Protein: SMc04008-like domain-containing protein
Amino acid sequence: MTESDFETVQIEAAVFRRLLQHLLHERADVQNIDLMIHAGFCRNCLSDWYREAAEQRGITMTKDEAREMVYGMPFAQWKAQHQKDATPEQLAAFEAAQKQHGG
Structure:
């Protein structure tokens, strides 16, 4: 790995940490369903990607461990503190988004 490659990895890691900080502390009010509707991914997707990347590097990680890395706390705790039931409008928008994007 060149020094430039190392710097790129460091920058990417910092950006990822900033995204998590933003989702955890600045926009915990944004529901996962809204992220899915508008961006096509949510916090759970990030935790799945995190676990997959770890496993590609030979690091075994459970779904719960990966979610705790992304949520900053056990998922059940985050869910109890921040997650609201999806509204009928959100569910309809999610279904429409899934159909539009082949999900």
Summary: Residues 3-100 form a domain with the SMc04008-like fold fold (CATH 1.10.3340.10). The two ends are 37 Å apart (CA to CA).
